[in-house]
Amino acid sequence: MYFGSVRFFKHVIVAVVIILIIVPCVICFVLGAQLNEQKEENEKLRAEIGSGRIEEYNTRYEADQMFELYRDKLDDKEGFLQRVYGYDPGEYSSALFSGEAVIPDATDAPVTEPAASTAAPETSGDSEPEAVQAMAESTDGVAETTEAPEEVPEFTHTEASGGTTNVRAAYEMMYPELYADVPENIVYNEDMDYVYLTFDDGPSKYTDSILNYLEMYDLKATFFVVPDGSDESNARLKRIANAGHTIGIHTASHEYNKIYESVEAYLDDFKIAYDRVYAATGIKCTLFRFPGGSINDYNESIRDDLIAEMTRRGFIYFDWNVDSSDALGATWTEMYNNVTSQTKACNRAVILMHDYNGGYNTILVLEDIIRWLISNERGYKLDKLTEFVKPVQF
Ligand SMILES: [Zn+2]
C-alpha cells in the first residue's frame, strides 16, 4: 500500500528536491575547488613576479589584456633563462629575482673604462702624493715628458675659491692622488635620442637581476655605486665591470648630513668609495653622481666650492633629467609613466633608477621600460655614460 500512496508521493517529491539541491551543490563544490586551485596558482605566480604588479596592470588594462602581457613576459623570461643560463623554467623567478644568478668568473682581468690613451696632463696615476703636491705648487707644464707619472694637475677651476688670485683651499691639498684621468678637449657626442639608464645605490641583492635584463637586451648602462668593501659587494662590482657597464662613484656612506658637512668631509667619503671600486675592479672612476643630485637641501652651503673642487680634480658629475621616482616609493605604473613621459620630453635622457632603494619595483618595471625604449618610433639609442657624453647637470 506504500507505493502509490500519498506518503509515497510525498517521499518522491522530497527525494527529488534533495537531489536537485545536492547535485548542484556537489558540482559547485568541485568547480569551486578547481577555481580555487587556479587562483592559488595565479597567486603563486603573482608572488613570484612581485606584489602590486597585477593590480597596477589592472588599473590600466582589461583583465584579458593583462594576462596576455603577463604570459608574454613569462615566456620571454623562461626562454631567456634557458638560453643563457640553462635554468629550469620552473625556477626562473628564484634565479632572476633573488639576485642569486650566476656571477661570471671573477678572475678575469677587469674591464677598464675606455680611457683615452692620449691622456690629459692631469694624469696622476700611481704617483707618490708628495711629488704631486710639490709639483702642484708650480703649475708649469711637464706634458712633454711622456707618461711622467708625476704630472701636475692644472688648477684651472679656481674661480670658486677666489678667481685668478689662486688662493688655495686646504681641501685642494687633500688626497693628491685623487684625480680623474680624463681626456682633454673632449668632443661630446651630441646626437639626439640617446638614452642612458643609470642605477644608483648598488651593488645590492638586485644588481644581478638588473644585469640579467641588460644582458638579455644586450644593453650597456651606468651604475653609480655605494660600495661597502665586502666580498659580496666586490663580486657584484666585478660583474658590472666585466659586463662592460660604466661604474661611477656615488658615495661610501650615503649620509647626507655627514658628507655635505664640508668639502673635506665629501672628499673623505668619496675617496673611500673610489678606493673600494678600484680595489674590486681595477677601475679608476672618472664619473660620479652626488647623493641627492648636485643641488639638494643638504649641500647648499658648500655646493659651489664642492662642485668646483671635484671639477678641478677632473671628475665629471651627472645628474638626471628623467626621474623614475622608484626610490620615492613609486608604483609600477607611476614609474613606467614617469620614465616614458619624461623621456619623450628630452633630446637626450639620463634616467634615474635605483639598484636597491627602488626595491623590487625597479626590477619589475625595468624590462617594460627597456622594451618601450627599444621599440619606440623615435629610435632611442641606449648606451652607458662616459666622459664623452655631455653631462646632464641641474
Ligand atoms: Zn643615492
TL;DR of this structure?
The chain has helices at residues 6-49, 53-60, 63-85, 92-97, 129-137, 207-216, 231-242, 256-259, 263-281, 303-312, 332-344, 360-375; strands spanning 194-200, 222-225, 246-249, 287-288, 316-317, 322-323, 349-354, 381-383.
What does this structure look like?
- There is one protein chain.
- With 394 residues, the protein is α/β, with parallel strands linked by helices.
- The protein has a domain at 194-383: Glycoside hydrolase/deacetylase (TIM Barrel, Alpha-Beta Barrel).
- It contains 12 helices and 8 strands.
- The protein has helices at residues 6-49, 53-60, 63-85, 92-97, 129-137, 207-216, 231-242, 256-259, 263-281, 303-312, 332-344, 360-375, and strands at 194-200, 222-225, 246-249, 287-288, 316-317, 322-323, 349-354, 381-383.
- Strands 1, 2, 3, 6, 7 and 8 form a 6-stranded parallel β-sheet that branches. A two-stranded parallel sheet has the order 4-5.
- The radius of gyration is 29 Å and the shape is elongated.
- It binds zinc ion (ZN).
Which percent bin holds the helix content? Answer: 40-55%
Helical segment tally? 12
Tell how many strands the DSSP assignment holds: 8
Strand proportion: 5-15%
Largest sheet data: 6 strands, parallel
- Strand pairing plus helix content: what structural class? alpha/beta
Cα Rg: 29 Å
The name CATH uses for the topology of the domain at 194-383 is: TIM Barrel
Q: If you average the pLDDT, what whole number results? A: 75
Q: How do the helices and strands follow one another from N- to C-terminus?
A: HHHHHEHEHEHHEHEEHEHE
User: Low-confidence stretches at least 5 residues in length (pLDDT < 50)?
Assistant: 51-165
Determine the N-to-C terminus distance.
101 Å
- What is the name of the CATH superfamily of the domain at 194-383? Glycoside hydrolase/deacetylase
What is the top-level CATH class of the domain at 194-383?
A: Alpha Beta
Can you tell me the overall shape?
elongated
CATH architecture of the domain at 194-383: Alpha-Beta Barrel
Bound molecules: zinc ion
